[in-house]
Amino acid sequence: MAEGEGGAPMFERLGGTVAIDRLVEAFYRRMDTLEEAAIIRAMHPDDLAGTKQILKRYLSEWTGGPKLYSPEKGHPRLRQRHMGFRIGDAERDAWLLCMRGALQETVADADALKEIDLALTKLADWMRNSEMRG
């Protein structure tokens, strides 16, 4: 992810490890509780502890923080890792609903919020692997 104003990595602009942890917890809380997210909640295990740790490690590295994901998992290859799941417009929209709500809850820097939302929207669009659904 690109550095923002002043050259600071997004990781720092978001608030570091504590902020990534809060973001991921808020994201999965929404996935667990929002009716609109049931379509993507069903793709996850009942116990989200391991899944949360993976996303925290990924987002830390993706935003320019400590490399916690690739030493353990290798190159992210996100689309390849998610090919076992049908991801169309409905799944993308549910994921973005949860992530945008979590971002609104946890990111105070308005410019950083806009930048990460744009980057995550592009990522979510790219992750689609099935015919778009209405």
If you had to describe this structure to a student in words, what would you say it looks like?
By secondary structure, the chain is mostly helical. It has a single domain (11-127), classed as Globin-like (Orthogonal Bundle). The chain contains eight helices and no strands. α2 crosses α7 and α7 packs antiparallel against α8. The longest helix is centred in the first third of the chain and has 18 residues, at 16-33. The chain is globular and about 40 Å long. The model is unreliable at 76-83 (pLDDT under 50).
Structural class designation: mainly alpha
CATH topology: Globin-like
Task: Round the mean pLDDT to the nearest integer and report it.
Answer: 84
Approximate helicity band: 55-70%
Number of strands: 0
String of helices and strands: HHHHHHHH
CATH class: Mainly Alpha
Number of domains: 1
- CATH arch. level architecture: Orthogonal Bundle
| Main beta sheet | none
Which regions contain 5 or more consecutive residues with pLDDT less than 50?
76-83
CATH homology superfamily: Globins
